[in-house]
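Figure S7 source data.
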Amino acid sequence: MSERTVGRAVSEASVSRPTQSRTNRVGLDTDSLVPHESGSTSGRRIVVVGGGMAAARLVEGLVARGLGPQTTVLAEEQHAPYNRILLSAVLEGTHRPGALALREKQWYADKGVDLRLDSLVVDIHRERHEVELADRTTVRYDQLVLATGAIPSLPPIRGVVRADGSLDPRVQAFRSLDDCGRLLALLDRQGVHDQPRNAVIVGGGLLGLQVARALAVRGIETEIVEGRDHLLSSQVGASAGKVLKRSMAKLGTQVYLGARATRLTDEGLKLDNGYTLETDLVVLTAGGRPRANLARRAELTVDRGVVVDDQLRSVDDPDIYAIGDCAEHDSTVTGFVSPAWEQAGVLADVLAGDQATYSGHRVVARLRATDLDVCVLGEPENEAGEVVEIANPVKGTHRKLVVRDGRIVAGALVGDLSRVGLITQAFDRQTVLGEHEAGQLLLPEPVSTGSTTGWPALPDDAEVCACAGVSAGRIRACRSLEDVRDTTRATTGCGGCAPTVRQLLATRPSGTQLSGTKLSLEGTTS
Ligand SMILES: Cc1cc2nc3c(=O)[nH]c(=O)nc-3n(C[C@H](O)[C@H](O)[C@H](O)COP(=O)(O)OP(=O)(O)OC[C@H]3O[C@@H](n4cnc5c(N)ncnc54)[C@H](O)[C@@H]3O)c2cc1C
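Tokens for the predicted flavin-adenine dinucleotide complex:
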């Protein structure tokens, strides 16, 4: 039942029984602790396993509802919860690792939250309402939340894992800040900055493209190996994939499609099409799956992820919940930050005793990569409907909407995001479009006609930040970008809303001008 974590030598299956119930406080400043005892009767103890993006959002919700002092977060990583989406920006060199924290460690202490870093949970003892940590200490819970994210899959490439079970030093995963640090250290050690070397990225999905662009921006020659017949095959169709491949080639990245890496040797990475790619760096980005080993071992129902109901509660145990990448709701696992944050918001209500229901989420995914614009709405390759499509392979653009009963049910925009705000709005609000409107939405942004910006006026109730669920009206009510970030959390997720947020702030009615604010997303994160 153990799951292999690429790049870590941790076997989660090798767990022995707990000795006695006591509290593990690894990695915490003692003066930041809020005293409590395991099993305290002073209030319900909410224990969150995992300190990633879903957990961070849940804790914000619990704090807002006065439940901070009753909350313990057990986090495997050594860093306070951070914005995983920006890892490629760290790799690219535009953001410092320290700038990724969603909240500083001190914030948790100030709010009475017991955040324990470097604390890997290895077992759940449901009958005793306890979780067991890797050091064999236990923590009692009244309500347990699994927010353990996803785990990268290890593709079947001979030579990637050495005889002693460790990874070949040329092979790197890319999921955590530590993975990112290892990759950067490797690049520095090999002197790649001075003399560009070659890197092969295994996997041509969103993450593979991000990593390839980040390394290429650093001056490293990159190649992508993708087993399917086009790039981003889970998100876009073959013609959009072709446009992407062409764009990547223009940006200097060679793409091998329909080819599988089979073996890593001293000569390089061998593909099943007969090619050998000489390389001293292989980055694995091909696929991942919900990290549900704890739930499985505790005999909770796990299909692809931990199966939960509309209150995000395990279908087997009323005291255990799951959110984010590890959860499966309505036969769906997500893998994006916006549904993870929506689930976190619903669960904060549920744990506070309020009525709340999660009924699924329309995902809008933006690729974060320099010179590569991609936005995917829903599942354009799976949704049924009429397809409206405009492509210009020469210019590197491909835009497609799937329309059903007059509503946009999915879409994919490659190479031109000039109308992304309006399209996302119509998708989110399920606006019924006129006969010509879907086609018009795919045309380039019209040149300004009288308005100071040419930017279409969004109504106050239009959702601007899908990750944090923030409307245009709430953005307009803010004084500055920092204010937006602090009070609404917009721009702190995937960052795709940042241009719209900047525009909304810049076009606020006169008399509400910004107070010396630097309008740049970089200003908020780096
Ligand atoms: C490089 C990268 C780029 C991405 N880019 C985008 C993007 O542009 N847009 C987008 O929407 N999504 C993106 N994603 C996906 C997004 O990051 C995830 O959907 C989101 O982080 C899910 O949040 P989570 O809390 O469920 O999981 P995670 O953020 O992965 O957090 C899970 C945490 O749980 C910890 N954990 C696991 N098991 C245990 C245990 N037993 N005990 C203690 N701790 C444990 C893990 O160490 C981890 O810190 C990206 C992901 C990666 C890796």
